[in-house]
Design brief:
Blueprint lengths: L1 H14 L2 H4 L3 H4 L17 E8 L5 E19 L9 E9 L2 E2 L11 E18 L2 E3 L6 E4 L5 E2 L5 E7 L2 E8 L6 E3 L1 E4 L2 E7 L6 E7 L3
Parallel strand pairs: 1-9
Antiparallel strand pairs: 1-2, 2-5, 2-8, 3-4, 3-5, 6-7, 7-14, 9-13, 10-11, 10-14, 12-13
Length: about 210
């Protein structure tokens, strides 16, 4: 599936997402995300993921998960990307202000973290290998995924991508072609809201990688 994604987006890295930008408003966006602030905890039943592109192309990712019912475990898994090896290190899980128990890096088989019953869980990690740099456009990169797969999916989930410049986002479901999604929150940020019908969506981004 990711081979099709790479083929569909390869021209966008050099051409600057023209194909996405010419789509009509109904095709290029999902539900607006302005009602969910980017800073602070989301309300119960919501989650938010902020992925920031670092110099060199690594991603610093933070998940805020506010569950309606207490949780005592959470799992992380690496996305399967054709021809790419993605890794996640410096993993920190905090549940209601207390550190969770689990490995500091995510293995190919995934990783599980345990904690005392909690409703507010924060997950942080550094992800490497997800951003492919363009060979034709200086500083341009394609993030073929912007976060790990995380259990405890909430009914409403906002994904935010930040970089020196974020040109566009696309969402892709397993076995399907990517489609434009989200809206800009400024030159250095783009966001999209997913709901319960989009649990398997992977979010991709065309960005300018900080130097």
């Amino acid at each position: 599936m990711l081979a099709l994604v790479a083929a569909a987006l390869a021209g966008l890295i050099g051409g600057g997402v023209l194909a996405w930008q010419v789509a009509g408003p109904d095709e290029a966006t999902r539900a607006p995300t302005a009602s969910l602030p980017v800073d602070g905890w989301p309300i119960a039943g919501e989650s938010r993921t902020v992925s920031e592109v670092l110099p060199g192309g690594d991603l610093e990712v933070t998940h805020w998960i506010h569950a309606e019912s207490p949780l005592d475990t959470l799992s992380l898994s690496l996305p399967r990307l054709d021809g790419q090896e993605v890794s996640a290190s410096d993993v920190e899980v905090t549940a209601d202000g207390r550190p969770g128990s689990g490995p500091g890096a995510v293995e190919p088989r995934g990783a599980t973290y345990t904690f005392i019953d909690a409703t507010r869980i924060q997950v942080r990690y550094r992800m490497s290998g997800a951003v492919q740099l363009s060979s034709s456009a200086d500083g341009r990169g394609l993030a073929t995924t912007t976060s790990l797969d995380v259990t405890a999916t909430q009914p409403r989930d906002v994904r935010v991508v930040r970089s020196q410049e974020v040109l566009s986002l696309a969402c892709v479901q397993p076995g399907e072609q990517p489609v434009p999604c989200g809206e800009p929150g400024g030159e250095d940020e783009w966001r999209v809201e997913l709901d319960g019908t989009d649990p398997g969506d992977r979010v991709l981004a065309v960005v300018t990688v900080p130097s």
